[in-house]
Amino acid sequence: MKGDYDTALKLHKTHLCIAQELSDYAAQGRAYGNMGNAYNALGMYDQAVKYHRQELQISMEVNDRASQASTHGNLAVAYQALGAHDRALQHYQNHLNIARELRDIQSEARALSNLGNFHCSRGEYVQAAPYYEQYLRLAPDLQDMEGEGKVCHNLGYAHYCLGNYQEAVKYYEQDLALAKDLHDKLSQAKAYCNLGLAFKALLNFSKAEECQKYLLSLAQSLNNSQAKFRALGNLGDIFICKKDINGAIKFYEQQLGLAHQVKDRRLEASAYAALGTAYRMIQKYDKALGYHTQELEVYQELSDLPGECRAHGHLAAVYMALGKYTMAFKCYEEQLDLGQKLKDPSLEAQVYGNMGITKMNMNVMEEAIGYFEQQLAMLQQLSGNESVLDRGRAYGNLGDCYEALGDYEEAIKYYEQYLSVAQSLNRMQDQAKAYRGLGNGHRAMGSLQQALVCFEKRLVVAHELGEAFNKAQAYGELGSLHSQLGNYEQAISCLERQLNIARDMKDRALESDAACGLGGVYQQMGEYDTALQYHQLDLQIAEETNNPTCQGRAYGNLGLTYESLGTFERAVVYQEQHLSIAAQMNDLAAKTVSYSSLGRTHHALQNYSQAVMYLQEGLRLAEQLGRREDEAKIRHGLGLSLWASGNLEEAQHQLYRASALFETIRHEAQLSTDYKLSLFDLQTSSYQALQRVLVTLGHHDEALAVAERGRTRAFADLLVERQTGQQDSDPYSPVTIDQILEMVNGQRGLVLYYSLAAGYLYSWLLAPGAGILKFNEHYLGENTVENSSDFQASSSATLPTATGSALEQHIASVREALGVESHYSRACASSETESEAGDIMDQQFEDMNNKLNSVTDPTGFLRMVRRNNLFNRSCQSMTSLFSNTVSPTQDGTSSLPRRQNSFAKPPLRALYDLLIAPMEGGLMHSSGPVGRHRQLILVLEGELYLIPFALLKGSSSNEYLYERFGLLAVPSIRSLSVQSKSHLRKNPPTYSSSTSMAAVIGNPKLPSAVMDRWLWGPMPSAEEEAYMVSELLGCQPLVGSVATKERVMSALTQAECVHFATHISWKLSALVLTPSMDGNPASSKSSFGHPYTIPESLRVQDDASDGESISDCPPLQELLLTAADVLDLQLPVKLVVLGSSQESNSKVTADGVIALTRAFLAAGAQCVLVSLWPVPVAASKMFIHAFYSSLLNGLKASAALGEAMKVVQSSKAFSHPSNWAGFMLIGSDVKLNSPSSLIGQALTEILQHPERARDALRVLLHLVRGSGTLNSTRAGSAVQEGEGKGSLTSGCEQVERTS
Question: What does the radius of gyration of the chain's CA atoms come to, in whole angstroms?
Answer without folding.
Answer: 44
